[in-house]
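Render PadR family transcriptional regulator in 3D.
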Amino acid sequence: MTMPERLTEPFIDVAEVLWRSPHGLHGYEIKKQTMRLAPTVYNNLDRLTGLGWAIGSFELRNPTPGRPPRQTFELTPEGRTQVEKLLIAWGRIPSSRLGMASDAGGDL
């Protein structure tokens, strides 16, 4: 189990948005939900992927001509477990929810 060197509120915000989503999200969606600046969001997505807690994949079809495909991010099974533990530790979800995210797709 790899843990981040330091935990920051922006890291927890980005991780929480991914944990609560039943599907992959692109950076702009995460930016809107966290109300964080794009560099902060992408830095924390890099941290999550570097830990092996999240994976990114590019859209196969580009819905907007002339624009590059968007990259979507989602938590790995290990990432979902680790983020859930962090959310409990930070008081963002009750400890009674432990293990329920995988059953409910993380959508609380």
